[in-house]
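Hi there, hope your week has been kind to you so far. For a while now I've been wondering how a particular protein folds. I'm sending you its amino acid sequence along with the backbone structure tokens. Could you read through the record and tell me how the tokens relate to the sequence? Take your time with it, there's no hurry, and the full record follows here.
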Amino acid sequence: MNRPYTFINVAMTADGKIDTAERKGAAISSKEDKARVDQLRAEADAVLVGGKTLLEELPKLTVKSESLREGRIRQGRSPNPIKVGVVTVADIPVDSDFVKAGETRVVIFTTSQTSNEQIERLRSHGVEVYTNDAPRVDLMKMISTLKEMGVDRLMVEGGGTMNFELMRLGLVDELMMYIAPMVFGGAGAPTPADGVGVPRNTAIEMNLLDVVRWEDGGIVLKYKIK
């Protein structure tokens, strides 16, 4: 399949949580890790999030460093990567940071469960909306559309359900994980890969490419998905 080179980046606790059980976007990354993430965004053509992350956090998904933005401009690119949201019902405010923050294209993949009025509202504010006439967004079609749009390097920033589905479908090349020296606990707290899961005999296998240990006590793992 002709698709972008796709990598998932997550920050998680030592007990494998990407948020607390409250699911309010708890801070996990250290200052050093935030700089690493900013560099990854600056190198990507697009940054993607799933529906729960999109609707609950309304993320900016912009490049924070002015020098990194300027570097993109010198390369003939927009200051920020394309923002991509994948959501069954796109009830996202048109004045949210996801839509308004930063100079770049904003793209939403959704379903016919999103009202025509909301789709037109988003489009009137410059959002490019792609609709599937199905219960859920077709991720294979979505990833192919992104490639057609010129996305060669795609960064995925969760959440756990989106991460798992993309990996399950064989659409992910790398997994990068910052592990923070803290524990959240909570059986209901989200993890880097949620969703329905797979049995042991079909586990998604990976090769470890790199390990970096930082002075903040955290480590960064980089895996190549087989």
